[in-house]
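Methods — Computational structure assignment.
A single polypeptide chain was analysed. Its primary sequence is given first, followed by the predicted tertiary structure written as structure tokens.
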Amino acid sequence: MLLKTNNASALEPIRGHGWWLRRWAGDRILAGITGRETDVASLLQQSARPLTTVAAEQVHGASVAIVERAHAIVDVLPGCDALLTSLPGIALLIRTADCLPVFFSDPSRNVVGLAHAGWRGLAAGLLPRVVAAFQHTYHITADHLDIAIGPAIHACCYDVGPEFVARFGAYIEMREGHRTCNLIAAATDQLQQAGVRSQKIMETGHCTACEIDQWFSLRREGPSTGRMTSLIAVKP
């Protein structure tokens, strides 16, 4: 099942977007969908035949790639965690299982972006770099961007060690004797500090670790779990 965001209607005029739930095709569990290129290609053949798809390699860094030409049916750009494009009919793709899928668009300019933001990417400044890439490449300022944060792990389920205090001190909370980190708040603040308007940042409210029947969670299930696929594309 491809689930579209329910509270990101501002993104609708220029692009299709969404992510796959844990279940697909008659509630069959996607135990085999682990993010390998062949698995992603199989999904796209079922649900997005008209689109060429470009995926980020996802190295937990802060590099942004600009997609400026058509690619093979599924292509993976190395060394990056975020993608931007203005080309119609090209779907940008990332895979997550607790990390934040962050959707970007400028409705007036037909430009979209998609970022895979885990704690390492947030600590490295990935999201401000995406905002800067919109400015540098497309001359789009931060206040024109609409942003949606998809299902990700929330502070209620994200216990962390003391090493997180130096990186995310303002977002550390103590819950029942456990140190937790609010990555959603960290991402939102980084975007606002980069110039994005608070009213243009939307978040689904879905915690991947709490709602294990709907989402894959690396923290809850371990490294063998699957991945959710997120997509965004400029409408042809």
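Note: The domain at 2-153+201-234 is CATH 3.60.140.10 (CNF1/YfiH-like putative cysteine hydrolases).
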